[in-house]
Amino acid sequence: MVMRGQWVNGAVMTADPGTKASCSCDGQYSENRACRKFDPYFLSTTSPLSIPGVDDGDGNGGGGGKDSGLCSNLVTSLNKTDTTDSHVHTFKQGKDSWPAPFSWDQINCTDPDYRGVFLMVQAGLHYGTDADRTFKEVVEPILRHPTYETCVELDKVKIVFASMTAQSRSMDQRYSHQSRENSNLFNEKIQDMIQSSGAPGSGDVMFLNWLNLTADAQTSDGLHSLMDVNLSKVSHLLYLLEMLSTG
To answer: Does 139 score more than 60 pLDDT?
Structure first.
């Protein structure tokens, strides 16, 4: 919605005209399952280049002036990892590495022209709210990777861990491991595990705790928040990035 500047149906994730005609505003977060229809339409049409201030490398200033704006070095689309510019990459690492495979080869902090990397780690829900498993399978492989350690030494990496959020009380009986109490315990334990790991840069890992933000907020299914909460999350991230970029 933000990237397209389309606040009515910008969150609709399909090219299907029928869905677009009948669905609006919440899109993927709608209470109507039909409105949550998903196909590759969004990934193939929306790019970080759509954000004002992004430099597309053509020399004419991109969306807001060459090398200006928060995302001035993004030149790849959300679903691609290849680019002719060796200094610039976007990628996603996660369960099943969807939508694109993650490769540490894309990060080269030793290159003087490489601006660095911002890593956002979000896990827990897909690992049964098990902090030990999440740390072992998701977090530790990052903190102990030689490329990450090199970036830490050169002060070219920032990492933030996004906490577990709150599910509706109506879902606690069925998904007790995701209750607010267990989510809070997960958040506290994973933070302690990271900070006490002794891994390079582990003391500088930032944590975004959205448990209170999402408590009692409207959801589409008892867990996934609607657009108002998601826009608030985006705002938090953008403020954080702006703060980091200005020192």
So the answer is: yes
- Amino acid identity of residue 30, one-letter, is S
pLDDT of residue 135: 94
Structure tokens given for 80: 């691609």
Is there a contact between 176 and 182 (Cβ–Cβ < 8 Å)?
A: yes
Tell me the one-letter amino acid at 112: P
Provide the mean pLDDT of the chain.
74
The SS3 assignment for 197 reads: coil
- Let me know: does 14 contact 41? Beta carbons within 8 Å: yes
What is d(CA 156, CA 204) in angstroms, rounded to the nearest whole number? 12
Per-residue pLDDT tens digits for 118-131: 888 988 888 899 99
* C-alpha to C-alpha distance for 208 and 184, rounded to whole angstroms: 12
- Supply φ then ψ for residue 225, to 5 degrees: -70, 160
pLDDT tens for each residue of 157-216: 999 999 999 999 999 999 999 999 999 999 999 999 999 999 999 999 999 999 999 998
Q: How many whole angstroms separate alpha carbon 129 and alpha carbon 182? A: 8
What type of residue sits at position 176?
S
Under 8 Å between Cβ of 106 and 99: no
DSSP string, 26-70: TGGG-SSGGGG---THHHHH--GGGSTT---SSSS-TTTSTT-ST
Cβ atoms within 10 A of the Cβ of 45, count? 12
